[in-house]
Amino acid sequence: GGIITQTPKFLIGQEGQKLTLKCQQNFNHDTMYWYRQDSGKGLRLIYYSITENDLQKGDLSEGYDASREKKSSFSLTVTSAQKNEMAVFLCASSIGGGRGTGQLYFGEGSKLTVL
Amino acid sequence: GDSVTQTEGLVTLTEGLPVMLNCTYQTIYSNPFLFWYVQHLNESPRLLLKSFTDNKRTEHQGFHATLHKSSSSFHLQKSSAQLSDSALYYCALSPTNSAGNKLTFGIGTRVLVRP
Fold this sequence. Notes:
The complex is a heterodimer.
Chain A: E1 4-7, E2 10-13, E3 19-25, E4 31-38, E5 42-49, E6 56-57, E7 64-70, E8 73-78, E9 86-94, E10 105-106, E11 110-114
Parallel strand pairs in A: 2-11
Antiparallel strand pairs in A: 1-3, 3-8, 4-5, 4-9, 5-6, 7-8, 9-10, 9-11
Chain B: E1 3-6, E2 10-14, E3 19-21, E4 23-26, E5 33-39, E6 46-51, E7 57-60, E8 63-66, E9 76-78, E10 87-94, E11 104-105, E12 109-114
Parallel strand pairs in B: 2-12
Antiparallel strand pairs in B: 1-4, 3-9, 5-6, 5-10, 7-8, 8-9, 10-11, 10-12
């Protein structure tokens, strides 16, 4: 089995601040994702990457940047935190390239609070 | 684009009674993969069921679902709810198994099982 590790688990920031979340996976999966989870809105895709140095925008990419530095890691940056924002960010990975079914494996989440 | 519609809000039911959560989808692709993910409190989502075969029942941990392409549905059912089934349930769609495996999630259905 493998594991997905997200850091930090809790992140508190100030309005306007740039904040970065990191994700590491040891599944050796090709594809990695960042989802945002909000109550009543489900899981919304921010960015995904099908291989190292690849980036694809999801439905919610505005206000975020991402970087796939190597196959095992995928980071997400909130470019300017919004006051009173609270959300959980979930990193996930999957086998790609037609060899998988699309099943995602999730990390435990990073909870963001903006004061 | 792709979309997933599922039973909204909170479903409250009594232990021992049947559970049914509705899920319908829209996609232009003829062979989508459908998933149910479950997320218990303070945990990350994990796969409960998946299917890509039309009219074939798939089962796991007492839950079952059948993909019906004719009605674009993948409803989740269980004959007898348990207290431990209290969780957030997401229906999700992957249009193909090609590179990217971009999943589209529904907004989630929260299930509360009472004694």
